[in-house]
Specification:
InterPro entries: CheY-like_superfamily, LytR-like, LytTR_DNA-bd_dom, Sig_transdc_resp-reg_receiver. Helix content is about 30%, strand content about 30%. It is of the alpha/beta class. The chain folds into two domains: about 140 residues, 3-Layer(aba) Sandwich (Rossmann fold); about 100 residues, Beta Barrel (OB fold (Dihydrolipoamide Acetyltransferase, E2P)), CATH 2.40.50.1020. The strands form four sheets. The protein has a five-stranded parallel sheet, with helices on both faces. A five-stranded antiparallel sheet has the order 10-9-8-12-11.
Length: about 250
């Protein structure tokens, strides 16, 4: 048995990797690769498929909006750099959620989940073929690190190692206990797409801090003192949200 599928992904490196994985999976019959959700919707209007692999953070129409627009939903597998989208995905009854960078082993696990659902559907054990059986599956998607490029090298940084991040226009300086790492990223992308909000918070237009790194917040002079005694300014517009996040007991 083969599953017909399409891939919706606007990042070329990610799409190229998915093409390699699809070629290595004889149980998948790929009907199309799309870098636009709108193109995918047009194709799906005339070509039903069994599975859609889609990035969440797409231009024009997000993967979530794409899923919501479908009347007869096939199996949906989300792909993204931000694990926090997993909660939204489960609310939409997706089959699985792949966090970038996606390994072939994890990709195959998603494909096998679809076959498991198909088998249960045939046996009458699943009313909704996209039903999530156990929301503890969220643990599979929790990101603990990121990979960044620096001087031609790819470096892994654990979230717990990040003390603060300083914005430098089109670059950021990631401050760790070991050393600062400068890489080509924007604060906006880090804040909105990559860093888990449970661990990080933007406190200034130029700074994001690791919440576990905070030792003291001076509300009068508006600055934070972090574990390495680094002092970070707090912008007035972030002060109230920071107090809510810190949850002082008195």
């Amino acid at each position: 048995m083969k599953l017909t599928c399409i891939f919706v992904e606007d990042e070329t490196p990610a799409m190229n990797l998915l093409k390699i994985y699809a070629d290595r999976t004889p149980t998948l019959e790929v009907l199309g690769f799309f870098d636009s959700s709108m193109e995918a919707i047009h194709f799906l209007s005339e070509n039903p498929v069994d599975v859609i692999f889609t990035d969440v953070n797409m231009p024009q129409l997000t993967g979530i909006e794409l899923t919501q627009s479908l009347r007869n939903k096939p199996y949906i597998i989300f792909i993204t750099a931000n694990a926090e989208y997993a909660v939204n995905g489960f609310e939409l009854d997706i089959v699985d959620f792949l966090v970038k960078p996606v390994t072939f082993e994890r990709f195959m696990k998603s494909v096998n989940k679809v076959f498991d659902r198909e088998e249960k559907k045939k046996l009458g054990g699943v009313n909704n073929h996209n039903e999530i059986e156990n929301k503890e599956e969220l643990e599979d998607y929790s990101m603990t690190s990121i990979y960044v490029k620096e001087s031609g090298k790819v470096i892994r940084i654990d979230f717990d190692e990040i003390i603060a991040i300083e914005g430098l226009k089109d670059y950021v300086k990631i401050i760790t206990d070991e050393r600062p790492i400068v890489t080509h990223l924007t604060m906006k992308k880090l804040e909105e797409q990559i860093l888990p909000k449970s661990k990080f918070m933007r406190v200034h237009k130029s700074f994001i801090v690791g919440l576990r790194q905070i030792r003291k917040f001076d509300g009068l002079d508006c600055y934070l003192e972090l574990q390495n005694k680094l002092q970070i300014p707090v912008g007035p517009q972030y002060k109230e949200a920071l107090m809510v996040k810190l949850k002082p007991v008195n």
